[in-house]
Prior knowledge:
The structure is a homodimer of 330-residue chains.
Chain A: H1 7-10, H2 15-27, E1 45-50, E2 53-58, E3 61-66, H3 77-86, E4 93-98, E5 101-104, E6 109-112, H4 127-133, E7 143-145, H5 151-154, E8 170-174, H6 175-181, H7 184-189, H8 194-206, E9 215-217, E10 222-224, E11 227-231, E12 240-246, E13 249-255, H9 261-264, H10 278-295, E14 298-301, E15 309-315, E16 318-323
Parallel strand pairs in A: 6-7, 7-8, 8-9, 13-14
Antiparallel strand pairs in A: 1-2, 2-5, 3-4, 5-6, 10-11, 11-12, 12-13, 14-15, 15-16
Amino acid sequence: MTRLNRRHLLAGAGAATATAAIGLQLEVPRARAAAPxxxxxxPAFYRTKVGDFEVTQVADGARTFPMPQGFVRNVxxxxxxxxxxxxxxxxxxxxxxxxxxxxxxGSKLVLIDAGFGPGAGAPVGHxxxxxxxxxxxxxxxxxxxxxxxxPDHTNGIKDASGGLAFPTAEIKVPxxxxxxxxxxxxxxxxxDNAMMKGYFANVRQTFAGLADRVVRYDWDREVGPGITxxxxxxxxxxxxxxxxxxxxxxxxxxxxxxxxxxxxxxNPEWHVAYDVDPEKAVRTRRRFYDxxxxxxxxxxxxxxxxxxxxxxxxxxxxxxxxxxxxTPSL
Amino acid sequence: MTRLNRRHLLAGAGAATATAAIGLQLEVPRARAAAPxxxxxxPAFYRTKVGDFEVTQVADGARTFPMPQGFVRNVxxxxxxxxxxxxxxxxxxxxxxxxxxxxxxGSKLVLIDAGFGPGAGAPVGHxxxxxxxxxxxxxxxxxxxxxxxxPDHTNGIKDASGGLAFPTAEIKVPxxxxxxxxxxxxxxxxxDNAMMKGYFANVRQTFAGLADRVVRYDWDREVGPGITxxxxxxxxxxxxxxxxxxxxxxxxxxxxxxxxxxxxxxNPEWHVAYDVDPEKAVRTRRRFYDxxxxxxxxxxxxxxxxxxxxxxxxxxxxxxxxxxxxTPSL
Lengths: 330, 330
């Protein structure tokens, strides 16, 4: 007789009976202290080969917070919460992960985006710890490429004492973002918008003293061997993605073409609160995903759930993300 | 001007131009040896809290192999290959992962299924290495529960020298599987079926000398504190799943209610080659997933892609798996 029913989920089914029946056996083996819980998560890094390149996804962390009004600007909060619920996020909350990526091209070790850095506090700012777990020495990073100048992408270029976290690396920033965020005129215009005001202040603080050190990059040029910057502006004026190419291997590093895919890839018309030009971001998103879906190109997404790799497919007028299957050995 | 198009994917777009333009900058920084590729994947373990229990998914590995005729018994090979292609498996191939789970109940450390063991060779047999990475000492395992007596679940109870890999653990086997596979009459009937013949031989070899040591368990009883065995027979006569319950936390350990979800959860009527009673396996599958979907219960799946946790939803008359989002810190 099969008894597989809700009762099994609603209580420790048959527990009393079972304890009575096999209690002696459970007690027999030996007196031994119970194993303590480990209490720590696995380090979050994951490797993929793209042609001859070795790509390592490295988590900076993930934040779960009560979804603020306007997190999705152009749909009611209830509709956004329904999408969160459909993705099994905790009731009333939204989870946003943050995942930089390291590309070893054989000649250059390139980090794309740097996470929050140590100042933001748990549960983010773990890039350095996860790099260490991955066996990647921050002093070995040749180039840090920033996709755009938002704090979750830029602030990890500094260490806890304000020094450079990747001391020997070139730091590359998108020209259009540098121009936009460093403009005093733009900053003055943003004084009534708390979020934008914070962003302008953060850029100035993060890059204080580094203006002569950063290298500005332009679209359709390489930022590293086999890594070409793409114009995916809208989220910010200089927001960039990257086409990675080695041999027959291809990958797109999408940066913030979407924030969390459960919302903005499933619903490409939704506007995340952080977009500077949300309408342009929508057009970019559709163009980017139409291309990626047609080519079945592997996508690395900063705000995808770790290991933050997947394929995008068209789903009517929307899209869906198919996460990669985890490959336990290279 | 935005130039985001197929060209970016088809070649290292703008590479020649870019190298010319920024070549000097790339050369300037310093003479330094290139960082060698790490050449190793991350250890594959992942932690989840279920009530007060600490659950650790631990990969034994994954196999990718040319899909044999009859891998799915009741659909043409081309149809199964189409499902593999839709899941981005390599052309003509199928990928099957193997993921045991460890549950620390606070008083007992329970391993459910033991992987292939060291004899099968790469790319499987990595349970011990991943347990070590997770900080779990095999000598601390109190109970090894085997969901059924197939080699990918049982053989890891032995170490490379044929000794017990979990030397102080109780080894629990489902009564109905023990009876079935240990029957000389059943073995004799299977002599014309190479697969079944192999299974019978493997059970005898794996459990040689252990008949008095193994503890047989029955359904609807606890196999460990808060871990109740469920009748999910069909795949084998004693195939078992487990309802895990701690406080308000619930999880189902499904074992092989499906083999790979990309095939058999998406298409619950498909019969995997390894089923002893495929029609019963289909009925079990529907009952199990109807229950899990209604209750939105977290499911740990031995053949789900690592970290082998997700939620099952109804999708018309079929089902779909929603993998958990990775939580980078506990």
